Predict the structure.
Amino acid sequence: MTAETPITLQGPVCPAPITQRDRIVMGHGSGGKLSHDLIAKRFLPAFTNPALAAGDDAGLVAAGPSARLAISTDSHVVWPLFFPGGDIGRLAVCGTVNDVAMLGARPLYLTAGFILEEGLELDVLERVIASMRAAAEEAGVQIVAGDTKVVQRGKADGLYVTTAGVGLVPDGVQIGGAQARPGDTVIVSGALGDHGIAVLAARGELGFDADVQSDVAPLNHLIAAILAASPNVHVLRDPTRGGLATTLNEIAQQAQVGIVLEERAIPVRAPVAAASEMLGFDPLYIANEGKLVVVVAPADAAAVLAAMRQTRYGEDAVAIGTVRAEPRGRVLMKTAIGSTRVVDVLMGEMLPRIC
Amino acid sequence: MKYLDEFRDAELVRKQIDEIRRLTTRRWAIMEICGGQTHSIMRHGLDELLPAEIELIHGPGCPVCVTPLELIDKAIAIAARPDVIFTSFGDMLRVPGSDEDLFRTRAGGGDVRVVYSPLDAVKIAQKNPDKHVVFFAIGFETTAPANAMSVWQARQLGLRNFSVLVSHVRVPPAMRAILGSPYNQVQGFLAAGHVCAVMGYWEYPPIAAEYKVPIVVTGFEPVDLLKGVAMTVRQLEAGRHEVENGYARVVTEAGNRPAQDLIQQVFEPCDRKWRGIGVIPDSGWRLRAEFADFDAEQRFDVGAINTKESPLCISGLVLQGRRKPDECPAFGQACTPEHPLGATMVSSEGACAAYYRYGRLARELAQSEA
Amino acid sequence: MCLGIPGKIVSLHDANGLPMGKVDFGGVVQEVCLSYVPEAKVGDYTVVHVGFALNLLDEAEALETLALLRQIGAYQEEIDLMTEAERAGGAASPG
């Protein structure tokens, strides 16, 4: 094609072939589709059992004739270790407490494993430990077993924490993603995106300061209040990595229902909205560490909301949508301007965009 | 947010829609040039609200999408070098090259970092004197002032370990290429608001006159986009083909002079290959000769690059506005954001990705809605 | 190709030889290069793209645009009423 010939735009030309992935990329850890596929295609086939297959935040297992346990585990690799509103220690305790509680279980015991990087200041470790103790006290759980390992300088971001937790599921409680039913009300306990933006700001790589604190908190007491208010709670889930959008898509898939949201009802604090606009992010996909989603029978929605609003961490609870029979496995949203759009799962890592 | 929320007001949106309905008496095909505008249209479901007679064709205003395959491959080759810190805007990391993308290069050990501003890349160069920092300087005219300033600043600071890999593209030649194509269906243009914030709109009257199309400078929020459509339809219905400014709070006819001056000092026009479209003469910018020290293409000899094209993807047709993403047989099947066949599916403002994220089931919804 | 959002300049300073400012987008503050808006003052609003201020926002234009947009429909209602009245054969009765 020379400069003299008139431009005849080429016909169908595909810019790129399919990329085969044979290594882990950061997107595998973002909680979106890549993460899901990694689990579904690599881990689940190897470890098949009903508890794992259910796909909830914790595994539900029998521990005797009439005792059911919820067991969960989490690894925490957040950087920086300390950020406005929290730290890796609080994150570790709350994350696992919440996962167990999301099955309707009363969290009882945690374990904590530490991978410490050579060169980590003991002061830092002390602060993390103190924070974990405070979080455990607040949640009312005990850390009953632990482990520490040390790795060479450069092999960990200061420190990594892995926690496992176990809780007792009361008789008759049947809470999980697959339980959502058409007609149910979808409630969220408060504003979205605080944790993700707080950590991003604290990292300093994108050069902004935000008046935002992580919302990291133990939600088991809030859940107790919710369950006391209604026996018809069908799903509890915390929208962590991948955000509310990913969580709701999971539920829609598990229960094979549709979920329709009202954009106007979804709470997002102004600084989080501003940071999202600036970077080209969507708050629906940003991680939360102190929020939960409740899917409950419509007749009990008002009672649940009232109970939540009187309980710590639930003061700003609001109904944001409903469950429908169709479209199955999908989440839709009525926008503030009156149109409707699809809310899809997060694909890989959320990246700041220039357009 | 001030100057943002007001332009998302539902009441004003409704009024604009009513106005467009009132004006429209026949079918019109209007192209929005900017990927950011495509994204906004999809995110707010604007195309669903418009009367059926108005067809929005999504133009090639996605710099990520149109960066040539050869350059992506070059970027990957440079990024893989142990002495290099490769910096880039976030979106470029996912774009597939012939074999892999920058994410995979990072997974393989390359130091690849996302930056928000080109000046951050300069800072990284200052902090890492033992490494060479390369910045992937892509974009339309909107980003050119920022990219130009990074080179300017690097020279002022006397940095020897900073260079840019340039793939700048310009809008007016692309508009001419589209309008001049025998397959062209576009009857009116929504010009890219922030490109015009930099360049002004003094380049457009000759295009409007030559091809007899109305061109309306348009913003990005729902009210702005609908206003642009309304102004374009009004012209089309009246048989006019002028340039109008529908984004006057940000754009002036002359544009930003200091920005244009620095662009001119650092860059010069050149032919550019647009991925999926081909070479459009004079449609790009490259570094001027006196900035050769900062030109990554000259500093790094990455050897012969063999690019591999695949026949399945129709990104080219989508970029030219000749096909909608959902008219592609691979859309949503072989080609999804996680297995993209083309850059238009990878980039969050690429037409295919925007369709996939927001619009894919809008039609199904229309049927299933109670 | 233009993710640019409006923010308010809250302070000015120099960095690495370039005029910079802190811009507040409503609770989020970003350091922004002001080289291309030499006339910028604290309190001005500007559109920021990849850490650069592109133009100062013209508040008067913004308000005028919003006012005009709000008028759409208001006049139309009047016109519709008049047209209807005429068609009905009676005297035009402006609202």
